Amino acid sequence: MKLSVIGAGYVGLTTAACLAQIGHDVFCSESDPEKLTKLQNGGMPLFEPHLEDVIKAGRKSGRLHFGSTREAIAWGNAIFICVGTPPLANGDADLSAIEGVARAIAKHASGYRLVIEKSTVPVQTGAQLQKHLSVHSRNGLSYDVASNPEFLREGSSVEDFLHPDRIVIGVDSPRAENLLRQIYEPIIGQSFSCPLHADCPRHKDPIFLATDTNSAELIKHASNSFLAMKISFINMVANLCEVVGADVTKVAQGMGLDPRIGSSFLNPGIGFGGFCFPKDVQAFIRIAEKSGCDFSLLKEVEKINQRRVDHFIEKIRKELWVLRGKRVAVWGLAFKPNTDDVRFAPSITLVKTLLAEGATVRTYDPKATAKARAILPEVTYCADAYQAAEGADAILIVTEWDEFRQMDWKRLLSAVEQPLVIDGRNLFVPEEISRMGFRYVSIGRVDALPCQPAGAEKVNPSWPAVNNAQEVPA
Ligand SMILES: NC(=O)c1ccc[n+]([C@@H]2O[C@H](COP(=O)([O-])OP(=O)(O)OC[C@H]3O[C@@H](n4cnc5c(N)ncnc54)[C@H](O)[C@@H]3O)[C@@H](O)[C@H]2O)c1
Questions:
Q1: For residue 50, what pLDDT is reported?
Q2: What is the CB < 6 Å shell around ligand 1?
Q3: Which of 26, 43, 187, 268 lies in disulfide reach of 38, CB 3.0 to 4.6 Å?
């Protein structure tokens, strides 16, 4: 089928590339001229594992094209809207980009179009789109509007798109439902040629759930808000563990063994960020408020999350006493591993606070440096995690990149000023790091004092050395 995708961000680019991969003829548009030129010249405006290869394959097959939104509107019978819906100051989703696209479709399209909202939008946006298309249509446009919320995760977007657990559509006509079924048929039956797995393991076929438009829109906001709630819940449990001397890792493990709870999203840390959870929780609160429902549970989820960076900074202050003049290494800037996205990342608030208090920040992120540089120009960006740690009074772990799990701690011990690791993502078993001669402070667990490592010369003498993991005091 000839399909159009509007907006070449994390969602739009993945959608366009994967739809071409499963056999459709796709035209993807982007309004940012710099991004568009890059794409048209074979470059990438963002990092996402495997995406570049899938795009290359799409271009080579002649099934993936990039250009203007005007061209995209003329191209496909079905148009996926994948533009951003950032938060306004009052927490509402800013729908101006969606409105702009709807107006352009109404003005320039003729004949039938299925207009599909893939961007995350408040409930009843579909109804607004219907109204808007009807008011502004000029050239005998006939249309259906459908909701098709996207559940991909940055860092694994291609995998998530091609092997989803579920595909949700919200439709108000059989024609729209049939078209969406046709579009997704290769994914529903897992019958496409998989670019990720040479011998693609037979994935469980995804559930195809068709609902009305309002329900589909609500499914997306309710899902993200629920996951955010799980994170804030475990973060409060972590706070409690710190006070009573329990281990949140074990508590989470015990909770997660209950299939009604499940173990995912029970990792405590410095808080959730990114372009989805913070804004979607805010938008859901506002949707509820405007509908006369006081969703105070979610207000608490948001407040707990906002306090996470403060809680982490308190840990840093407790260890370093005065921050002015201290040199800290920040490992990781992206809001999660395997992405270059720093939008609403806790690292941004953290680094800004450290700088405001007079600390010097040296940082390293495997992918997010370019995007962070635009927001945090006052920071020293290093080529690797070792360079960032040189002369540091503390190493702060902010993003759980895999490469941080494989560091040479002996090398680090001789590079730092103070052997102190404050881990906002609980990457390590405390005793592992203390055995390397570092004091290790993490989230919701008992802090570990440094043990004297074999051959170490530079352990801070002011901390009592302990001999083995079992003797680490509370
Ligand atoms: N990022 C995620 O993990 C994720 C996951 C699921 C859903 N979503 C939702 O999907 C939507 C898009 O998210 P994203 O992360 O891809 O955002 P993004 O900012 O990366 O991408 C949006 C793109 O749309 C472009 N754009 C805006 N108006 C346009 C127009 N008129 N014509 C062509 N291009 C236009 C922007 O320049 C931008 O490149 C949001 O509503 C988001 O909440 C995001």
A1: 97
A2: 6-12, 29-32, 35, 69, 82-85, 97, 100-101, 119-120, 150, 152, 154, 275-276
A3: 43
Query: For residue 121, how far is its CA from the centre of ligand 1 (angstroms)?
Result: 11
The string of pLDDT tens digits covering residues 416-464 is: 999 999 999 999 999 999 999 999 999 999 998 898 765 554 444 444 4
Give the pLDDT score at 452: 74
Buried-exposed string 380-403: b where 16+ CB fall within 10 A, e elsewhere:
ebbeebbebbeebbbbbbbbbbee
Provide the 8-state DSSP code for 198.
T
What atom in ligand 1 is closest to the CA of residue 93?
Answer: 41
Burial class (CB in 10 A: 0-12, 13-18, 19+), 90: exposed
**Length of the chain, please?**
474
Q: What is the CA(149)–ligand 1 centre distance, in A?
A: 12
Taken in order 382, 385, 391, 397, the sign of the CA dihedral is positive
Q: Are 221 and 227 in contact (CB under 8 A)?
A: no
Q: How far is the CA of 300 from the centre of ligand 1 (A)?
A: 27
- The reply to whether 276 belongs to the active site is yes
CA angle 311, 312, 314 (to 5 degrees): 65
Please give the Cα distance from 156 to 158 (Å, whole number).
6
Distance, CA 299 to ligand 1 centroid (Å)? 25
Whether 78 and 109 have beta carbons less than 8 Å apart is answered as no
CA distance 397 to 187: 38
Ligand 1 atom at minimum distance from 153 CA: 3
* Ligand 1 atom having least distance to the Cα of 120: 41
